[in-house]
Each structure stands twice: as structure tokens, then as C-alpha cells.
Amino acid sequence: MTDSDRLQTGLAVIGAGPAGIAAAVAAAGCAVDVVVLDRGLEPGGQIWRHRAGAPVPRVASQWLARFERSGAQLLRGTAVIDVRGTANRIEIIADQGGRALHVHARDVVLATGARELFVPFPGWTLPGVLGVGGAQALLKSGASFAGQRIVVAGSGPLLLPVAASLAHAGAHLVAVAEQAGGAAVARFGAGLWRSPGLVAQAMRYRARFLGTRYRTGTWVTAAHGTDRLTHVTLTDGARTWDERADVLCTGYGLVPNIEIARLVGCATERGTVVVDERQVTTIPRVYAVGEATGIGGAPLAIVEGTLAGLAVASPRALPASLVRQRTALRQAAARMHEAFALRPEIRTLATRDTIVCRCEDVPLGAVQSARCARQGKLYTRAGMGPCQGRICGPALELLLGWGEDTVRSPVEPTSISVLRADASEATGAFMSGHQDASPSSLTTGARQ
Amino acid sequence: MSKQGARPVRVTVNQRTVDVPAGVTVATMLLDAGIWSTRTSVHGEPRGPLCGMGVCFECRVTIDGVSAQRACLVAVRDGIRVETATARTSDGER
Q1: pTM of the full predicted structure?
Q2: Do the Cβ atoms of B56 and A358 come closer than 8 Å?
Q3: Residue A113: its pLDDT value, please?
Q4: B56 to chain A: closest CA residue
Q5: Average pLDDT per run of 10 along chain B, which is 94 residues long?
């Protein structure tokens, strides 16, 4: 009896969001054997998240249907722990509910998506404070929010659909606050003339919560309560006021999930994975698509995923129309980043006593003398909890200018049984993953 | 959010039995039951779900005796037993 399950395939796709689905459909359509690994219960990632059997938006349902028909194999509830390579193949170690799974593939597409950027402020750790994307994820997983007093205070286009969904679910939307200034948001809106469909969509979202003002240049400075949120302090720079609230949805944009890319040794730049025109990273046979290469939304993720899937299947030139679409969508994404850039006041909300590492309960005052993430960990354990620095890392980068620490496997907390199964596969040495993420460590399989 | 016509499932939350719609996650089930705190922090502060997508680990609960399960990643099933840390009297688990 083996300790683990093994799977051989042509292409392994990590992440079953829009980008991963598009890559799987494109590659499978060219007769490539495809396996897709996803941590979640259903495909769709975050933006196309749905409960089994529940209705989904048209674009999502079309792609999910294509995915189902494609012949690609989906592994649900499967979290990637480690990725290694030899000269001929890539090996993915995954945790499937406490059981080790080894996937051997010729090529791998990293479609690992993004997570929310949280910037600490007094009271942000109170129960009742959720992310904006967090609220959306919970809504799509079946949460009610009916009758709850909700403040939505954050940044970016995501505020609109989430406010709309909350209102539609029967929540009482007390305030919707966008930290970017009115002029920047107006310019962004005007710049959407190229995409009338997006403008129409934005107006439809806004119509759902017409009873609530959409305030620009306004942000939350503190959350209050004892065991649960009771009220929120907002400011527009001139006036400061409190709102009673049961729930605060706050988040300042998205952070690409690049841990696996960094583990493998891919070059990254400003928090995104560097790729060429065929979506190949700096490591051969490792592709990256979607939010991991730069936040740009579902349409760009679909285009990049398709391009990578086609590139995996064949060395032929990629369709010019898709390449043009990618360029246009990347330009649109750049305009969005510019419009919703974080105002400096957001970075100064946290006080000495504000918790910055939620996992290990480390306040800003304890860690701000450290010069880098590694030193922060050694002094205070900040970044050493189960989230592995995913929540506090980007925040501390913003607040203290820290860079990222090195990434080592396991890239997700996992059980001893999974690590032991992997150790028994290795020839002698205890599994330790990569010590230093360097290009050669993947292609030659060198491990320390 | 439309609830499905599927038969509800019976779950136990902190020794209390509730009927919930099939297919929702344990996290959403807790919120709808008015339980917004899933665990206590290192220094004993109440914490609840934040990211909703399995990244932050604030929604850790014990499910069917297995600790540290992310509630936002687990779908409810008939007979499932959920315990939040704030309901425990022992301090072994955060």
C-alpha cells in the first residue's frame, strides 16, 4: 500500500479560476492531457465562485461548461505544497484532505490568482470586519447578511459589485466609501468609453444601492467594539464621523499570489511574475497567467490562460487577435491601478498597538524596528503563523518598506502524513524543498 | 442569494442542533447562526472570518473532532459537528 497517490499528465494547471480554466480548455482542445488542481470545492476561483447547483453569471457558466466538456481532470480540495523539477518533468506535491498526491507533468501553468490587500487600522481584527472580496466570497458561499448594517469602505472597482450584492441580499448599506479621490474615479469612469459594456455593468451595480451615497475620497480610520464590531469611524479628510455597523467590508485592492512561482525560482517584479509573450516564466515549461502576472480581472485572465494553453500545445505562433486583446486589457488594468492608487493617509492609520500580524498577535510597535521580514520573524514571530505571511506581508511591505522573505515548502500548512509520504518517495534525504529559489534548482532537481 | 430547494442538512454547532441549507460553507453557516467569532487569538481576543477564501486562517474551527479546519473551505454535510474555539473551556487550541 502506497502512502500517496500518483498521477502523470502532460499539463498541470494550478488554480481553477478564469485563467486556469481558460488554459485547461485551450490545451485540452489541442489534445494535451490536462490536470487542474484547486484548493476549493468548486471550480471558478474567487470571481466565479458559486455553490454547487447555484446560478452563475453567463460568462462564468459558459466557461465552466467548456471546462466540463474539455476532458481536463479537475482535482478539487487539493492544495499544492511543493513544486520541484527534474530535467524532464515537473513534480507537484499536493495535499488532498490530509493525503499526499504526486502529480508529474511536462509543463505547468500557474494560475494562482490573487488575494485581498489588507492595511491594518485600529480595530480591524474585530469579528465583523471582513474583506470586500471576503464578503463577496461569503455571499457566494451562501451567507445571508439580510438586515445587517454594513459599511463598505475600501478601494477599487470591486466595491461596486460587492455593495450591489449586499444590497440585493437585503443588507442595510449604511455607507459606501472609496478612498480614491472623486477626480481620479471620474477620470477612470470617463476612460471606460472604450468598454461600453463595463460602463453599463457599473451602472447596473450602482443602481442596486441607489439609496446609499457612493462617497469618494473617504476612508475608514477605526473600527470599534468589544467582542464584535459596533461602529466605524470614517473620514473624508475634512470631516470625521461615526456610523453604527454590524459588518465592515474593507480591502484595498488585490495582491497576486506568487508564492509557488517564487518557490520554483521564477523571476518576479513588483510582486508579479515575469512572463514573455507566450506566458512562459523565466523557468522553462513553467507558465504564469491571470492575476499572478499582474492584477487585471477576468477578461485578461481568460486571454492569458488561452494563450498559455495554446503555447503549451504547440510552438506555432499565437493568434494575433488574442495578443492584441491582451495588450488592450493590460493597458486598461494599468489605468485602473493608477486611478485607485492608495492615498498616503491609509498607511498611517495603524498605531503602535494595532495588530499587524493576526496569526501571532504582533502589534506594529513590536516589529517596526525590524529592517526586513526575516528580522521581523526572528524578533517577534510576525509572518510565522499559518497564513505564512500572506496577510501581514503585503501590509508590512506598505507600512515599513519590507521586501519579501524567501519562500520554502510547504507553501501551505499541511499534515505530517503528507510530508512523510513525500519523504518516503525521496531517495534517502528528508524532504526539505528548496533552500534557495534559484533557476537551476528546478531544472536539475538539485535539492539540499 | 436564492436558497436552493434541496433538503436542508442538520448540523451541530457548539452542541446546538440547527438545520441549514445544503451546500453552504461552515463559515457562512456560522455567520447566519449569529456566530461571528470562530477562534481566540494568541492573547485571547475573539477573531472571526476575514478573507473568506482560505488564506487568513482566522475561521479555524474544529469539525468532527479535527481541529484547525478552515470553515470557509468546508461545505456543510448532514450530521457534521462544528465547534468554535470560543466555546471551548480548555485552552489547548487557538
Answers
A1: 0.91
A2: yes
A3: 97
A4: A387
A5: 66 94 93 94 96 96 94 94 72 43
Burial class, A174, CB count within 10 angstroms (exposed 0-12 / middle 13-18 / buried 19+): buried
Q: Which of A50, A76, A141 to mutate to test the interface with B (most CBs of B within 10 A)?
A: A141
Please name the member of A136, A140, A387 whose beta carbon is closest to the beta carbon of B55: A387
Contact A46 B53 (CB under 8 A): yes
Q: Is the pLDDT of residue A430 over 80?
A: no
Question: Is the Cβ pair A360, B42 closer than 8 Å?
Answer: yes
Q: Quote the percentage of chain A above a pLDDT of 90.
A: 81
Q: Which of A131-135, A313-317, B83-87 has the lowest mean pLDDT?
A: B83-87
Per the CB < 8 Å rule, is B51 touching A116?
Answer: yes
Out of A126, A141, A413, name the one closest to residue B25 (CB). Answer: A141
Q: Where does the pLDDT of residue A109 fall: very low under 50, low under 70, confident under 90, or very high at 90 and above?
A: very high
Contact residues, chain B, for A391 at CB < 8 Å: 50-51, 55-56
Task: Please tell me whether the interface predicted TM-score (ipTM) of this complex is above 0.85.
Answer: yes
Q: Does B94 touch chain A (CB under 8 A)?
A: no
Residue type, A182: G
Write the residue in B2, B46, B53 that is nearest to A137 by C-beta: B53
B87/A contact by beta carbon, under 8 A: no
Helix (H) or strand (E) holding B29: helix B26-32
Q: A154 and chain B: CB distance < 8 Å anywhere?
A: no
Q: Which of A77-91, A281-295, A322-336, B3-17 has the lowest mean pLDDT?
A: B3-17
Dump pLDDT digits (tens) for A147-196.
999 999 999 999 999 999 999 999 999 999 999 999 999 999 888 888 88
Contact status, residue A233 vs residue A220, Cβ threshold 8 Å: yes
Q: Which residue of A has its CA nearest to B50?
A: A130
Residues of chain B neighbouring A383 (CB-CB closer than 8 A): none
C-alpha A200/C-alpha A58 separation (Å) is 16
